[in-house]
Amino acid sequence: MKIVDAKVIVCSPGRNFVTLKLITEDGIAGLGDATLNGRELSVASYLTDHIIPLLIGRDARRIEDTWQYLYKGAYWRRGPVTMSAIAAVDVALWDIKAKSLNVPLYQVLGGASRDAVMVYGHASGDDVEQTLGSFGHFLSLGYKAVRAQSGIPGLNSTYGISHGTMAYEPAEKNAPPENQWSTEHYLRHVPQFFARLRKEFGPEVHMLHDAHHRLTPIEAGRLGKELEPFHPFWLEDPTPAELQESFRLIRQHTTTPLAVGEVFDTIFDCQQLIQEQLIDYIRMTVVHAGGISHLRKIANLAEIYQVRTGSHGATDLSPVCMGAALHFDLSVHNFGIQEYMPHTPETNSVFPHAYTFRDGFMHPGDAPGIGVDIDEPLAAKYQYQTAYLPINRKLDGTMHSW
Question: N or C, which end of the chain has less CB nearby within 10 Å?
């Protein structure tokens, strides 16, 4: 089952996506997502210039060998561009493997460990009242878990606030947008915000919150401790995790569950966090962590230490990645929760898919492979548009994590 053709498809049906399509001599086509928000063309170039020439003639069935070939053979390992490109190849090969057997991907990964995948939505608003309305809207749609973000009094803009009712897109056209930040304003606001949420919606709904790497470890410890009475499902990305041992300090001060990992590339980014049980959820995703092959290894390591998965699933991941993530989620034993932000109608038209949402849960469907396709003629009508992620500055102008 040799690979005889490959192409990179860049399109922008509402936002930019990069898709790898591999075709075998048997006529089986597999898809992989290679989208890296704000750096899409870098991954497209890496695939076209360096990886595709190496794939032609290779056996599509040798998935693990191909992964190691692309990872170790390049010498320059890791990094978001490299790992996103490898992920696209890996997922496309898994798609081909399952299609060749005429079964949904999760059956090739060991079968289902559960009946469906619990997902969480994104409630947000310019202020607390708007967020309460948004939160209630998600509950009315059947969500059992909702992430809550609110505008912060005294700041003119805050990352994570939707311009619509369901999802937000952080990347914007032309120059990067600039947000303001004040840790003092934020730490005063969030505990009061969660008190309102619990009072309004009661104890049963799962409530999540994203600090987006903006706090120092001791600040994160303070916030986690003050949120404990409201029992959040997790506090996400409380501090930049390049220094993994910094989470020891947070653990000393709070029992609020911690989640991290959407910007991680490899198992080495989270090895210490998992082995020292410094986190409760690992949030790495299929497209940025080298594909299903590598993410399964991370999940296996995490299972030993009772750490669960909580994969990233924002709209900058294409339906190809969402489909692959759902097969992964359905199969691994230590699944926790899956982020889910619905794509635009334009995106769904370009990427018809078998996965479904109902009453707070999703299922990847039983179509062969991942169950996601791409309408190439339609995709060609949506040309790439330059877009940048925002930057964040403190009130005095200092650059800060956004």
Answer: N
